[in-house]
Structure formats: C-alpha cells, structure tokens
Design a protein that fits this description.
2 domains, disordered N terminus, TIM Barrel, 10-stranded mixed beta sheet, alpha/beta, two-stranded antiparallel sheet
Length: about 375
C-alpha cells in the first residue's frame, strides 16, 4: 500500500505542507479570488499555532471563504480511539487513521517538561526481538499530517497538551520514512507551525545509515539517538535483524561522523545483554564516539518473552560505564500500570494484522 492510495479525497491536505509551501499555495488561492495576502497568514496560524479541526471553525474568515477553502483543501484529523492515564501521570493515546490503521502517542510529564513520544509508521518492518511494534509488522508509512498531526491533536484537547520535547521513539523507524519525517521536522520546529526548538527534538533510529547522513545535512541542531541494544555484531544480529544490513561497526562510524552528540539507547534484557562483559564492550563503543548512554529498563507489558533486568544489575551496569568515563543515565520506567510499551495498546485494542511488504516509498532518500 502506498500513501497515495490511502486517501481517496483528491483535495490537497494543507497539513502535509511545510509553512513556506502552505503559504505559497494559500496566497495563490486567495489571489485568484481577489482576497488580500494576509488571509493566507491567518489560515496558516489556524493550522498549527491555534489549530482547529475544520475550516468552518476559522471564525476570523467570512463564512463564504471558509466554505470555499473546504471545497479546495482538506485537513487531516486524527480520531482519538482511546487513551490511558498512569498513576505517574504518563498518558497514552491511540489514534485511528482514515484508513483504519492505528498509531500510538505517549505524553510523559517530568517536572516542567512534557515529552511527546510520537510514531512515524503504522507498525514497523524491523522485527526487533523485544519490541511489540516489530512483532505486528509493517503496515504503512505515515504522512507529515499524521506525524506532526499527533502533536496537533493533543494541542486541540481540552485542556491542551503542549510539549516541551519531542522524541521519535513511538511506532516505526523514522529514518525509513524520511520523505515524510523531514518535512515533519520543519513543521515541529518552525515558529509559524509548532515552534519546538531543534535541540528539543530527537530522532531515534536503529542505525539506518542513509537517514543518519540525511539528518546530518540538515542545518538545525536536531538530536540523534541510536538504538544499540547489544555491543557486539553477533548478539545484535540475534536481537535486531537490521544489523545484517547496517552492521554495528558502520553504525558506530556514522555516530562518530555525526556533528552533534549522539545518545545510545540500550534496553536492558535480563541475562541477555546485561552482563559485565557487555558493559565493557558498550563502554568502549561509547568512548569511541563520545556518546551519552541511556539505559532503558524493559517494559514488561511489551517484553515479547524477555525478562527485565533487575534494578541492582542495572545500577551495577551503569556504574561500570561511568567508571569507564561514559556519561550514563538510567531511564525511569513510566506507565507500568498502563499499556505504555511501544505497540502494546494498539495490539490490545485491535489485535495483530497481517503485515505488508514495505514499498519503495518507504526507502530513505539522502538529501542532495
């Protein structure tokens, strides 16, 4: 399934366009109708900054213009299928898309920070052994209106949820949907859209090398997190089939070449990747590229048969890394009383669907 086949509505979606492109389209449309150019700016402000669900709600415009806009353009709205709230304040949202697919978004409060964990694909093709999303297989890529649209949808809640930080750590591999993720980054960052600082936006990848190169070529200071999860090729191959295409040594070389500090994400799997020798190997890799290491306790709800590493073992592993001069943090487990593991809520709500073969529109195209 290609994204062009998803929506039969032929009207262009303004939420798929970066601000410059949206303004250009709107200015031309208003000019054809003899309307002043400032109308385009008015509409743009209602797409992301003060979003509305429909053109009819743009009360600053005459009703005739609202009707004409609705006849010419569309606005994708994500339907909130269900949500859960943890006793620790974590909230998980399941959105239904227009073609019946479901995606997840998590809002994680931490003091004065509110981080949104957003999805970039429906499902995932990578089949990491410990990931519930990987087990459901790949369904399709999301469009910018559906990726940035998760932030927009939460902004339209009452009361609104406004994030300070964004992490692409939800469903899917963002760098295998670069053609949609790249304009989404602009929408997230541009002050005319969602206005989130680039250093507060993190792309997490298993190590898709062309995508890392494409991200490095963007001028903004977006953050890069690499899912390592094993410090040797043999172990990483058994956990992450993508390691066959993008071997660990090549991923480490890409991290060294990236011009900003990289974070290593490392899910702790009891008895699998949490032994002292693994800490020594991981410490060496992190030192090579001056990476920050984020140790992640396995969420038992989406563990796919793996056992979470015991907290004392995680603490010992973290000390071993710090003793080697590696800055290390242990992520606090959140949402343990809800289906907060990636893919868990979707699977519980809609079950598993047969995966589809990723089409060429899922390939990464490195920016020229």
């Amino acid at each position: 399934m290609t994204t062009s086949a998803i929506v039969s509505d032929s009207r262009p979606d303004l939420l798929d366009l970066e601000p410059d492109a949206a303004l250009s389209v709107l200015r031309a449309w208003f000019a054809e109708r003899g309307e002043p150019a400032y109308r385009a700016t008015q509409v743009l402000g209602r797409l992301w900054q003060k979003p509305v669900a429909a053109f009819a709600e743009m009360s600053e415009l005459p009703m005739a213009l609202r009707d004409a806009l609705d006849a010419s353009f569309r606005l994708t709205n994500l339907e909130l299928a269900t949500q859960q709230t943890s006793k620790d304040g974590t909230r998980k949202f399941l959105f239904r898309l227009e073609d019946g697919q479901f995606i997840e978004t998590v809002a994680i409060p931490d003091g004065d920070r509110l981080t949104f964990c957003i999805s970039s694909q429906a499902g995932c093709a990578l089949q990491c052994a410990f990931c519930a999303t990987g087990a459901m297989g790949f369904q399709r890529n999301l469009r910018p209106s559906e990726i940035a649209g998760q932030v927009r949808a939460l902004r339209m809640l009452e009361p609104p949820l406004i994030p300070t930080n964004i992490v692409f750590m939800g469903m899917g591999e963002p760098l295998m949907n670069w053609k949609a993720v790249s304009p989404t980054l602009t929408l997230l960052n541009d002050p005319r859209a969602l206005g989130i600082g680039a250093r507060h936006i993190t792309i997490s990848t298993v190590g898709v090398l062309p995508g890392i190169q494409a991200l490095a070529e963007r001028p903004e200071q977006f953050r890069l997190a690499i899912s390592i999860h094993a410090p040797s090729d043999e172990l990483r191959r058994s956990l992450m089939p993508v390691n066959i295409k993008y071997p660990l040594a090549d991923v480490i070389d890409a991290a060294k070449a990236f011009d900003r500090r990289v974070t290593f994400e490392y899910v702790m799997l009891g008895g699998v990747n949490d032994q002292p020798e693994h800490a020594a190997q991981l410490g060496q890799l992190a030192r090579e590229c001056r990476a920050f290491v984020n140790l992640i306790p396995l969420h038992p709800g989406g563990s796919m048969g793996f056992v979470p590493t015991a907290q004392p073992v995680i603490a010992s592993f973290a000390r071993a890394l710090r003793d080697r001069g590696v800055e290390t943090a242990v992520r606090r487990s959140r949402g343990l009383d809800i289906a907060a593991a990636c893919g868990q809520l979707r699977t519980e709500r809609v079950g598993r669907r047969l995966p589809v073969t990723p089409q060429h529109d899922g390939e990464v195209h490195v920016a020229q």
